[in-house]
Amino acid sequence: MLLTVVSSLDVLCRQRACEMLAAAHPEAMLVVHDLLDDGVVVRRVFGPNAPVDREETRLEHGCLSCTVRLDVIPTVERLLARGEEHVIIALPPAVPAAAAVSALKQGLTSQFTVRSVMLACAPDSLEDHIWDHHTLFESGFTPTPEDQRTPGEFLIGELAFSDTVLLADPLLVPVNPDQRARGVQLLDELAPHARIADGADAERRGSHNYAEAMGRTIAGSVRTPAQAPASPFVTVTQRVQRPLHAERFRDALARLAEGCCWLRGRLWIATAPDCRIAIQGIGPRVWLENTGPWLADQTAQPQSSGATDRDTSLDLHSGHGDRGTVIAATGEHLDPAEFARLLEDCQLTDAEMDARPADLPDPFEFTLTS
Q1: Strands 86-90 and 29-35
Q2: How far is CA 37 from CA 42, 89, 142, 193, in A?
Q3: Please, which pLDDT band fits residue 285 given cuts at 50, 70 and 90?
C-alpha cells in the first residue's frame, strides 16, 4: 500500500495540487481533511469515478494534532484495510507533514509505504510568506488562535521535511511570471534535496526517506546546496571553532541576519559552554533554542538517526569534539567575507580563552526555549 502525503499553507494551493495529483494518479483514493472553526473537521474521500464519502466530525479539542490522530488515521486505516493500493492524503492547511507522517507510522496497523511527501505551494508568493510577521491565525491560514507560527516558519519546516515541492499556482489568482521565477530559484536554494514538480509534471516526484527527512528538521542542523546557484539567492556557511563571546555575538546578530530569508545553525557560547544552542531565523524572526548538552558532554550517547550523526561527524574536532559554531544564511546579495568577519570577531580572544568562564561578562540575555 502506498501513501502520498500533501501539505500546504493555503486551501487554494492544496486544491490545485489535488487536481494535478488526481489527474496523474487516476486509480488513487484522495482523502481531503479541513479543520474549521469550533473543532469541526470535514472529511471528503474521492474515488476514481465519483465522491465516495463526506462527513463532519466535531473534535473535543479543535487542534491540528487531534485532526490527524482522531480522523485522518482511522480514515486511511479503513481504506488500506479494504485493499486500496494508493491513497493520497491532503492535509488541512498549515498542518505539518512531519507530525502527520509520524502519527501515521505509529497509528496505522496495516502495512504501508510513504511514497512521497509533497509541499504544494505558489512560488510567486513564497518570499511574501517568508517575510510575513503575522501568525498563521492572523494571516487567515488556520482557525486556531493559539498557533503562533508564522507562514514562513511553516513553509521552511515543510521544505525541510518534504521530498517534493509541487508548484500549485491557484487558478483563481493571477501569476506574476518574474516573481514566480524568483520563487522557483529560492526553492532550489532552500530545499536542494527536493524534487520540484511543475504543472502536468506532478508524477515527477521525489522519494521519501523518513530518517533523512527528520534529520533535516532537527534544530541546529545545517544542510546547504552542493553547488553555487545561478540565481540572485546564495547560501553562506561559516564555521568557527572557539566559543563565542555572548555580548559581541548579540551585537553582531542583527547584521548576520540582515536580508536572510533563512538563518540556521548551532552556537557554542562561552557563558553557556555545555549547551548546544540552535539558532533559527526565518524572515523577520530570529530565535535561539537550548537543545541540551553537546555529544562531547554526554556520558551516554543517545540513539539518533544517521542524518544527525552525519552532521556531527563533519564538525568533529580532536580537542573539543562536536562543540563549535556552524551558521548558514540564505538570502539575496549576501557577502561571504563580511559574514565570516562578523562571526570570527565574536570568537574569544587568546586572553579570554585563558580566563575562567566566571570572569567573562555575562550579557547572555537571549530568550531560550527548551
Answers
A1: parallel
A2: 11, 21, 9, 36
A3: very high
pLDDT tens sequence across 59-97: 766 677 777 778 889 999 999 888 899 999 999 999 999
- Binning the chain into helix, strand and coil, the percentages to the nearest 5 are 35, 25, 35
Burial 200-215 (b: 16+ CB within 10 A, else e): eebeebbebbeebbbb
d(CA 361, CA 276): 20
Sign of CA dihedral 136, 142, 148, 151: negative
| Closest residue by Cα to residue 238 from 344, 123, 100, 101 | 344
How far are the Cα atoms of 108, 252, 286, 300 from residue 272, in angstroms, in the given order? 42, 18, 19, 20
Angstrom distance (rounded) from CA 170 to CA 122: 7
* pTM > 0.85: yes or no: yes
Tell the burial category of 35 from Cβ atoms under 10 Å away from its Cβ (0-12, 13-18, 19+).
buried
Q: How far apart are CA 30 and CA 298, in angstroms?
A: 46
